[in-house]
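Query structure, 156 tokens:
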């Protein structure tokens, strides 16, 4: 079995592979919050990461770092500095294999983060949601390599 892991963006226009991974972390810095549009950014160091289909567009988020994303669907993919490339954990085809093991930049951690696992869980599915699930057609790239994958995303 290969130790190579693969992943990519939601629409499949950008794909990557990596076999030498480093630290996997949850970054709480404000730049990561904004780049991911969320409470934090889960990232893993990719010592030999390579783009296997397409390539990300880059935003120079500071004088020392740039962030890669898919120009078609907007998926945040990478964080790049002179120390190396980090890939977004959620973009891996098997994200559980690169689960974060440490939190960093906790001085920017948002209030309420530590209580996430204590929030109430609503496991009831409404009639509307069940109907939605019956009729939805996903255009998301599958969680495995494909020889061809047309980009289904439309940019409006």
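Result returned for the query:
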């Amino acid at each position: 079995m290969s130790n190579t892991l693969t992943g990519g963006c939601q629409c499949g226009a950008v794909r990557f592979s990596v076999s030498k991974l480093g630290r996997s972390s949850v970054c709480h810095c404000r730049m990561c919050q904004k780049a991911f549009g969320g409470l934090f950014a889960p990232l893993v160091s990719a010592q030999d990461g390579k783009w296997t289909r397409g390539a990300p567009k880059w935003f120079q988020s500071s004088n020392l770092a740039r962030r890669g994303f898919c120009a078609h669907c907007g998926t945040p993919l990478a964080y790049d500095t002179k120390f190396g490339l980090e890939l977004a954990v959620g973009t891996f085809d098997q994200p559980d294999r690169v689960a974060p093991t440490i939190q960093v930049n906790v001085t920017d951690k948002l209030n309420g983060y530590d209580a996430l696992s204590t929030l109430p869980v609503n496991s009831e599915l409404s009639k509307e949601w069940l109907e939605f699930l019956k009729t939805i057609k996903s255009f998301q790239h599958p969680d495995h390599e494909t020889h061809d994958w047309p980009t289904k995303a439309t940019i409006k």
